[in-house]
Amino acid sequence: MRLQGKVAFITGAARGQGRNHAVRLAQEGADLVLSDICAAVPENMIRPSTPEDLQDTLAAVKAVRSDTRIIARPADVRDPGALGELADEAVAELGKLDVVVANAGILNYAEFEDYTLEQFQACIDVCLTGVFNTCKATIPHMIRAGNGGSVILVSSSAGLKGQPFTPGYTAAKHGVVGLANGLANELGQHRIRVNTLHPAGILTPMGEAPGLMTIIGKHAATMGPVFMNTLPYEMMVPDETSNAIIYLASDESRCVTGLQMKVDAGTCNR
Ligand SMILES: NC(=O)c1ccc[n+]([C@@H]2O[C@H](COP(=O)([O-])OP(=O)(O)OC[C@H]3O[C@@H](n4cnc5c(N)ncnc54)[C@H](O)[C@@H]3O)[C@@H](O)[C@H]2O)c1
Q: How far is the CA of 105 from the centre of ligand 1 (A)?
């Protein structure tokens, strides 16, 4: 129960890593504020989540700790009003926010000649502006409460290295690091810590990335190594990142801020 008494706000919680974080954080004692768009996002090449997926997350959380207090509803991270309302309601009902996990994301890819402005903009809107919107909705509550807190911005190995074929995603995920570093400096005075998480390939719907391997395969001789791990695991599982999220969310990391935490099977070392 490393998170007993804490309230965690998680975006992109309908499935994948977001769902796993919800379950694992609840297991550690946290109450939860969960959201997801539960619908298609233009230019996302990953299949959409559904309202049923979010309900399944609730059921999975209740199965591990039935008395978890949960507020869950669809919300688009591109919509600051929806996130603001959710955060306000959460504080009114659950009393406070201690942990923010800005996890929602989309992915698209193509060789650069075929990659469009629309694809680029969609990634910036969800993976960077959406993270900013999540911070704007939540952090003022944490400052006012005066309890400190932990903000975890989910980036990617593509936020630290020059991942080819994903210009919008790579740019947005790098942008998240700048946002986190600035906020870490500004919010330290309030004991609010801001760190980024950098996963490599994980077995979730996004990890499947249909068609991406074909593009990489065409350029394997030159760009294959950029995508390779150093540890002998081709793909990781969501518990790998949930372990890191629990550490960053808990008081065990009370002196950790401005960290770019790689959970990447070594790919960023290449
Ligand atoms: N799976 C991987 O290989 C991998 C690797 C590195 C980083 N990541 C990052 O991890 C995070 C979680 O991804 P995942 O692997 O669980 O993939 P996923 O596609 O299963 O989950 C992403 C979730 O975000 C939601 N979402 C998308 N756009 C949204 C929006 N506008 N508003 C609200 N919710 C929205 C989706 O509906 C989905 O439920 C993402 O930020 C992703 O970029 C994933």
A: 4
